[in-house]
Design a protein that fits this description.
The structure is a homodimer of 276-residue chains. Chain A is α+β, with helices and mostly antiparallel strands. Chain A contains 8 helices and 11 strands. In chain A, helix 4 packs antiparallel against helix 5. The relative contact order of chain A is 0.10. The first copy, chain A, binds a DNA duplex (30 and 30 nucleotides) through helix 2.
Chain lengths: 276, 276
DNA sequence: GTTTGACTCTCCGGTTGCCGGAGGGTGGAT
DNA sequence: ATCCACCCTCCGGCAACCGGAGAGTCAAAC
């Protein structure tokens, strides 16, 4: 019922290159049915064509080989379905992201950069409910939903009204994963609550820029503020803060969002400030 | 107006990792404004933040670095726009392809494989108008439009009515680029015509399977036929042929397409054939 | 004035999923 | 016997960086 073929023939049947088949053999993803002990010649069975085609399909979707292996090895359809769905979800998200980047790229190239208004403020130390974690950049959206969901629930329960925010470690941006703390300011004598920490944010001077609109071209404002600070101020240690003056909780329209980016500085610059 | 910053600071301003900045320096994509000759320390100017952000944006779209360089270096907006658009087009196509693969993957996993009907036929040698070329797999759609457009025009002019087809070299499938010949059968005494060649296709025995519907899961039929041939026939040399019995020229609905895959064999097998 | 600690440098190797080629052995047909 | 197409293994390389080693530098603190 099944015949056995050489690599070259199998290559033709599956549209996988011989090199690729060698590779899959080496890593144990798709081993030939038999190998001639003396010559080393590989022999595949025609029944293996199906698996090979499945692998090819998955690879066409850029699925990493370890995941492909998981799908292929999955005995039960459940695991298989799950891995597949996870991958497709990821692709979906990536796609949405791509669209965002494209639009923001268009804006970046066509529109003149909006004049950035930077103001200086002293923010005193304050206490806040906090949710902290080491977050991957990819998962930041989900994580924020989780964190602010939790903070929002407590705020609603206790009747706290305040502008929430978050601090981001540098590595979060540059290494694509790092420490993030979502916070919601509370009174200094606020009692602890389940599910959140009590954190004390240090006071200090900040250079603050307001970013209006959705967060897709957030990095532009971020870079502009950073440049401004580098040109006019002495930076102080500590993570950058974001204050969500108007965010998803205040309305459904991302265009109405207002986010304040707070860059810690040593002091308010005294020299005449030339905006730019 | 512009201040100068270290790699680390520049990294914070641009959200590019230090390693990445090193890399971009090395390949000359984004060189620091100055390098301390004794210490080797890099110094960037804040004015470089913008370029860096553009690069980051483009990389987020998975644009290869050489293309990024082209966009960044592009003095005039025209070249820039063009490179960009080309890239976005490619992404668009890739996306469409992804969707196709997903649906066909779904079908592949949920539906039982349709019983493959294989028939054997002797096809005599014939003459045809041909358009041949070395084609990249990515560009096959475009190329087919071009080739069959040309053949179709001549057919219309000369009143030729025949089923067109194409031959594909193995490498086209396995190496993602290879020789392809689109052909349209003509009478043996047909006169040459501008823009097309006259080719003679050799006769012989073929194992033929009919693939119905769009070509997204074409490779499945292809593999199934190949397996069948490997199990029941002796293969003959020569490229695989496809005959477009019902194709884009015959109606807009891909579901109505019928394509015959012709696999060259030495002779019609005499043994009792068990389908599978 | 030096010591600390954060920052930076270069170089080397590894990652993923293969491709290309060198150098040499095999297999079936003539 | 010879040919030629096929097959083998091994080595290096591609993109676009990341990780770490080992060493040098800078600025502030003691």
């Amino acid at each position: 019922m099944t015949a056995t073929v050489t690599v070259g023939e199998f290559s033709r049947l599956t549209h996988l290159s011989v090199k690729t088949l060698h590779h899959y053999h080496e890593i144990g993803l798709l081993a030939p049915a038999s190998v001639d002990p003396s010559s080393g010649y590989r022999r595949y069975e025609t029944s293996q064509v199906e698996v090979a085609q499945l692998i090819r399909r998955l690879r066409e979707l850029r699925m990493p080989l370890p995941e492909v292996r998981a799908v292929v090895d999955a005995a039960d359809g459940g695991t298989r379905e799950e891995t597949l769905r996870a991958h497709l979800d990821r692709m979906e998200r990536e796609l949405a992201h791509t669209r965002d980047v494209v639009t923001s790229l268009r804006e970046m190239l066509t529109l003149q950069p909006a004049e950035l208004a930077v103001e200086y403020r002293f923010i005193p130390a304050f206490r806040a409910y906090g949710v902290s974690g080491h977050v991957e950049r990819e998962g930041i959206g989900e994580w924020c939903e989780f964190a602010f969901g939790r903070l929002g629930a407590i705020a609603a329960r206790d009747g706290i009204v305040a502008t929430s925010g978050a601090t981001y470690s540098d590595e979060f941006f540059t290494e694509d994963s790092g420490q993030v703390v979502a916070f919601l300011p509370v009174a200094p004598d606020q009692a602890p609550a389940d599910g959140v920490e009590l954190v004390d944010l240090p006071g200090g001077f900040f250079a603050i820029a307001v970013h209006s609109g959705p967060l897709t071209d957030f990095d532009l404002s971020y870079g502009a503020l950073g440049s401004h600070v580098a040109e006019h101020c002495e930076v102080a240690p500590g993570p950058i803060r974001e204050l969500y003056a108007v965010g998803p909780g205040d309305g459904p329209d991302p265009a109405s969002y207002r986010t304040e980016i707070c860059w810690p500085i040593r002091q308010i610059p005294t020299s005449p400030v030339t905006k730019g």
